[in-house]
Amino acid sequence: GAVVSQHPSWVICKSGTSVKIECRSLDFQATTMFWYRQFPKQSLMLMATSNEGSKATYEQGVEKDKFLINHASLTLSTLTVTSAHPEDSSFYICSARDPNLMTGARQPQHFGDGTRLSIL
Amino acid sequence: GIQVEQSPPDLILQEGANSTLRCNFSDSVNNLQWFHQNPWGQLINLFYIPSGTKQNGRLSATTVATERYSLLYISSSQTTDSGVYFCAVGGAQKLVFGQGTRLTINP
Predict the structure, then answer these.
(1) What's the pLDDT tens digit per position in A61-119?
(2) Residues of A in contact with B39 (CB under 8 A)
(3) Which residue does chain B place closest to A113, by CA atoms?
(4) Of all residues in chain A, what percent carry a pLDDT higher than 90?
(5) Are A95 and B88 in contact (CB under 8 A)?
(6) Chain B: residue nearest A104 by CA?
(7) Contacts of residue B33 in chain A, CB cutoff 8 Å?
(8) What are A86-99's pLDDT values in tens digits?
(9) Are strands B10-14 and B101-106 parallel, antiparallel or unpaired?
C-alpha cells in the first residue's frame, strides 16, 4: 500500500531557530500533500494544502510567513517552522492522497508518522 | 464547511467487550476515513468508506451517506485497541477530522 514517510520523528530546539520537516511519498507520486497540526488531547487541524509546482494554500488563521511550505517534486513536501517559539510546540503530521485508488477528492489520504516539535 | 461530530467522546470497556463508535457529518462527502491513533501518535488507517460496509477482522464499518453518518464496530476488544479513534470526512479537497473517541480497554 501507499507509504508516506515523515522526518524527523521528534525535534527539540531553542526558541528562535527554524525547523524543517520533510514528508515523502515512497511508492507513489503525490501532486497534493497536506500538513496538519495536533495539540495535546485535541484533534488534527489542517494547516495547509501543498501543491507540487505551485504555492501552498493555507487555512484561515495559519501564518504563511511562519510556516513555509515547499513542494518541489512529486514525492517531497517540506514544512519549515521559521523562528520557532514555545507556542509552536506541537505534533505535525503530513498526508498525501493515494492516486492508485479512485480519482481526485475521492482518493484516500495516507499519513506519515508525525513529528513532535518541542521549542524550549 | 463540513462539521463532524463523534460520539461518545470517551469509552471505557473491559477486554472482550464489543463497542460501536459513531460519526455524524453535516454535508455530502466524497471521502470518509476511520483512523486509530496509537499512544505514539501514529495514525493507523482503518477504513476508507465513503459509503457501504467493510470488514477487516474484528473491525467493521458502515457508512450511510444519505443519512450522513458512519459507524465503526469493534468486537472482542483487546487492550491493544486502546487509543483515540478519529473519523475524517472530505468534500471537494481536504479532510475534516472529528474530535475523536478515546477508547480505553482494561484487562
Answers:
(1) 999 999 999 998 889 999 999 999 999 999 999 999 877 666 665 678 899 999 999 99
(2) none
(3) B42
(4) 72
(5) no
(6) B93
(7) 108-109
(8) 999 999 999 998 77
(9) parallel
Query: What number is the average pLDDT over the span B10-38?
Result: 95
Q: How many CB atoms lie within 10 A of CB B75?
A: 14
DSSP string, chain A: ---EEEE-SEEEE-TT--EEEEEEESSS--SEEEEEEE-TTS-EEEEEEEETTS--EEPTT--TTTEEEEEEETTEEEEEETT--GGG-EEEEEEEE-TTSSSGGGSPEEE---EEEEE-
Q: Does the beta-carbon distance from B42 to A114 stay under 8 Å?
A: yes
In this complex, the residue of A106, A110, A111 whose CB is nearest that of residue B31 is: A106
Nearest residue in B to A34, CA atom: B94
B93:A44 CB<8 A: no
Task: Kindly state whether A62 is in contact with chain B, defined as any CB-CB distance less than 8 angstroms.
Answer: no
Max intra-chain CA distance, chain B: 42
Burial (CB < 10 A; 0-12, 13-18, 19+), residue A45, is middle
Residue B27: DSSP 8-state: S
Interface contact flag, B98 A101, Cβ < 8 Å: no
